[in-house]
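Lecture notes, unit on protein representations.

Consider one protein chain, 439 amino acids long.
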Amino acid sequence: MPNCDARAVIDNGPMRLRQWAAVALTITLNALDGFDVLSSAFAGPGIKQEWHLGPDGLGAILSMELIGMGIGSLFLGGAADKFGRRPTILACLMLMAAGMFLAATAASPQSLSIYRVITGLGIGGMLAAINAVAFEYSNLRYRSFAMSIMVIGYPIGAFLGGLIAAMLLTAHDWRAVFLFGGVMTTICLPLVLWLIPETPAWLAQARPAGALEKINRTLRRLGHAPIDALGTQAPHEVAASLVDIFKPAYARATLVLSLGYAAHALSFYYILKMAPSIISDPQFAGQHFTKAQGAGVLAYANLGGAIGGACFGWCMHRFGIKRATMAALLISVIMVARFGLGATTLGGWTWAVVLTGLFTNAAIVGFYAAFAASYPTHVKATGTGFALSIGRGGAALSPYLAGVLFSEELGLMAVSIIMAAGSLVALVLFAFLPVEEKR
């Protein structure tokens, strides 16, 4: 009987070195996204000081790339299903590089806001595409692990980038942070060309010219046996569209994941976006910490996120995506609210954000695993991109809402409790997600 299923070759075969290399590069690309998203938070205190911005003005700027990410997730995430994972990743990298370099030249809050939207467009499309790549290049045995380590690339990039940003800010102004991000983004372009060929799963579904030859070339490159022919496609896979993710089989997952991710993002980005400004403001910190110290503390928040994400891969394998994610969301509610207690020392602030980042990012890992598990190949990036685009609404609202609440002279505890409510809403919604308890 002829072998016609390229996806089964990957699913049931061993994980070869080239597959791990592709997954490793998705970690790197997600790390790049982590730094690029938080570069404005690292630079935030300097931006606020140079242009004499209030909390609401800074919050608006910090929301701009998140707005771009929402738009990019919706439109460029779908492009990964239509045009392929690899070309979408390359296009997104070019948008990100352009936005970062332009941000380093910004002369006003308005121009910086525009450049951050451009960066966000690339990041939004990138996240949906690399989520699909990590899923489709990993076999069944290691898929949960591959997905979890792909997602923790985001806090790893933010952690390492935060340490670098802290060093840059001791000798340069905030523009150096964006310049560094632009250089690192550009370096990733040739790495994608080298290490991420188009996935066999997408080629088998999309059927571009020469699909069989391209699939077999990639399979041989990965160290797997080629297939004999292309299998028969189901009618619904031939003309996939955004409408497909609202059909009865996927509608509940689409609504739960989109709204739940948006709610949790409200809490998640409150810590990631506002922590440096809170810590460097004597009104909240009780004493004066420098901009570099604020960036350094945020870096450690992302270290906590990386540790939480890595451990969470085992939790999903042991307890299932749904139960593990609900537990992480519950603890996230507690930790974000607890952030409102503040601290009196730099070490105290560091531990507060590390523990908060550990659980809030673990829940993010759960959402990404649920994105990949809830949709088939032909709408995997579309479904992920749509959920991310709605989720970015919560992310974009987060720093702006926090800024407005602080402007109304609410205390740190009151604001933190309000912002923690997002994870609570996500917890309630996730209970309705139709995902297997164990994978």
